Amino acid sequence: MPKSYKFFQAIAILFTLIISWFTWQIPSAFAAAEPETSLRALAEKRGILIGAAVDMKALKSDPKYGEVLAREFNAILPENAMKLILLHPERDRYNFTDTDILMEFAKSHQMQVHGHPLIWHYAIPQWLESGNFTREQFIEILHDYIKTVVTRYRGQIKVWYVVNESINRDGSLEDSIWLRKIGPEYIDLAYRWVHELDPEARLFYNEYSAEEVGQKADAVYQLLQGLIQRGVPIHGVGLQMHKDVDWSSAPQLIENMKKLAALGLDLSITEMDIYIKEGFGNQQQALEKQAQIYGDTLQACLSIPQCVYFSIWGFSDRYTWASSWRGSQGAPLIFDEQYRPKPAYYAMQEVLSR
Ligand code: G3I
Questions:
Q1: Cβ-count burial of 44 within 10 angstroms (0-12 exposed, 13-18 middle, 19+ buried)?
Q2: Pick from 48, 110, 133, 182: CA 20 to 30 A from residue 351's CA?
């Protein structure tokens, strides 16, 4: 082989190596550096609460989790710790260990705490599910439970998601032990009791799949309108925003939010995550689409003065409910598994900086 050919071959290999090194670096470039400012700092300038649901196991075992949580968010709510099954596992026993830890964490990092969920059809403990109680006993149990929890955190929990997901996709009332044993008035009773016990707390209703215009959104509207007409203390509504990466209904979300705000209610996005389905383009396309949805939704919230709170369902792909519930992880959050900010994180920063 002539010497000049060997020389050109060596140059070509070197060139290829340099190009591959750059190409390899580019996708992780967005993730490499610590952000210069935090979502929290930007949100505080805009006067909005930016929050995340907290996985208590992660908070107790992974120091980086708490560090990023406190740096990036000024509000938190428990992903699971406040569910009846964990809070009141036996008829004569409450377990406030995790919720007390959460309150302490929030206090030491000047974060607001929101209570989620007080009443839900899911996560009901066995003693209640199979207990043979009369309607009067059920009402008493519900009242005692609300009294115990709300009184314990009175003044510390600023927003209560009092009733969670009481409506089906077709607009009918969701079957629940509360509906079966007490009747639909369990909703009015719960709001009235929480208000009596903590008049300063803002009381919200929380719902999934009511972001788009349609049957379910109409039913939620009617439920809230009915509560207001009956003088039940209700101050706001949370739309969850668990969506897939092919979601494209931001204009409908805005229309819906405006309609709800016209009822005199505050609004919040409560549980946002954007699941990347298999087969949706390549990784870069999926991350960009995910970023766009996070950005558009935050922008929708900022464009409506009554939208006071924007919360994500977790924050790092390391801990997401999607892995156990949807069969695959779906990378739905704004930090990757190594806590590196994803394009969705920067899309939110960009919207908050406008
Ligand atoms: O912690 C136990 C573990 O000890 C046990 O071995 C394991 C066995 O199943 O269960 C673990 O608990 C699970 C818990 O998540 C913590 O991972 C429960 O089974 C599981 O049911 C629970 O799922 C939660 C789900 O609500 C039901 O409560 C999800 O994490 C949580 O993200 C999800 O959150 C809901 C909101 O509250 C309401 N809106 C929809 C949202 C998503 O479904």
A1: middle
A2: 110
- CA of 84 from ligand 1 middle (Å) equals 12
**Residue 176 to residue 318: CA distance in whole angstroms:** 32
Query: Is the entire prediction scored with pTM above 0.85?
Result: yes
> Are the C-beta atoms of 98 and 86 separated by less than 8 Å?
yes
Specify the higher pLDDT residue, 91 or 33: 91
Task: Read off the pLDDT band of 194 (50, 70, 90).
Answer: very high
d(CA 68, CA 73): 8
Q: Does the annotation count 271 as an active-site position? A: yes
Buried (b) or exposed (e) across 210-231, using 16+ Cβ within 10 A? bbbeeebbebbbebbeebeeee
pLDDT (mean) for 76-85: 98
Q: What is the DSSP string of 223-286?
A: HHHHHHHTT----EEEE--EEETT---HHHHHHHHHHHHTTT-EEEEEEEEEE--TTSS-HHHH
153 lines ligand 1 (CB under 6 A): no
Identify the sign of the CA torsion 100, 310, 210, 232: positive
Question: pLDDT class for 21, splitting at 50, 70, 90?
Answer: very low
Instruction: List 93's β-bridge partners, or say none.
Output: 90
CA of 87 to the centre of ligand 1 (A): 14
**Is the shortest distance between the CB of 317 and ligand 1 below 6 Å?**
no
Atom of ligand 1 nearest to the CA of 314: 32
Choice among 165, 207, 211, 212 that is catalytic: 165
Is the CB of 208 within 6 Å of ligand 1?
yes
Task: Output 16 or 40, whichever has higher pLDDT.
Answer: 40
Q: Is the CB of 123 under 6 A from ligand 1?
A: yes
